[in-house]
Amino acid sequence: MGYRVVDADAVDPAPDRPCECRKLSEPGGLDHAAINRFRAEPGEQLPLAYHYHETQQEAFYVLSGTLAVETPGETYEVGTDELFVVDPESPQRAYNPADANGSVTVLAVGAPPAADDAVAYDPADE
User: Fold this and answer.
1) How far apart are CA 106 and CA 79, in angstroms?
2) How far is CA 98 from CA 30, 43, 103, in A?
3) Where are the transmembrane segments (predicted)?
4) φ, ψ for residue 123 (rounded to 5)?
5) Cβ(44)–Cβ(97) under 8 Å?
6) Are 104 and 39 in contact (CB under 8 A)?
7) Separation between Cα atoms, residue 7 and residue 24, nearest integer Å
8) For the chain, which domains are there?
9) Fewest CB atoms within 10 A around its CB: which of 16, 69, 86, 90?
10) Between the CA atoms of 35, 39, 42 and 45, what dihedral angle is there, to the nearest 10 degrees?
11) What is the C-alpha separation between 125 and 69, in angstroms, rounded?
């Protein structure tokens, strides 16, 4: 048996991200899922780009604030204590709108952990 407690605030934010991203998978010893905590100020997005994953399913659980998720069909508003799920090959861009009243904090879970399967998506190509 094994157990770990990870203080997310003790994990250094990942560099080169458009918002604060604390990658919790490695400190948690997780091999089969990726877990990140994002905190985005108004006007900041969570991912590096509008994208989709070839094999990874993603779930965004909003801890506080309201998350906007742009998809080819519509933009969703995901409030506190709501979960937004993205299936593989489904383009999305999650962000905190520029006119938001404050930050949004999100716990993002992806499985399988597939850092190298993200594919950039350009809606203009449709």
Assistant:
1) 10
2) 34, 4, 10
3) none
4) -60, -25
5) no
6) yes
7) 9
8) 20-121 (2.60.120.10)
9) 16
10) -30
11) 19
Extract the tokens encoding 101. Answer: 């009243």
Separation between Cα atoms, residue 87 and residue 52, nearest integer Å: 9
Tokens of 62: 């909003």
Contacts of 12 (CB under 8 A, 6+ apart): 22
Tokens 């006119």 label which residue? Answer: 99
Q: Which residue has the tokens 């597939």?
A: 114
pTM: 0.93
Amino acid at 107: L
Whats the size of the chain, residue-wise? 126
Which residue's entry shows tokens 């877990």?
35
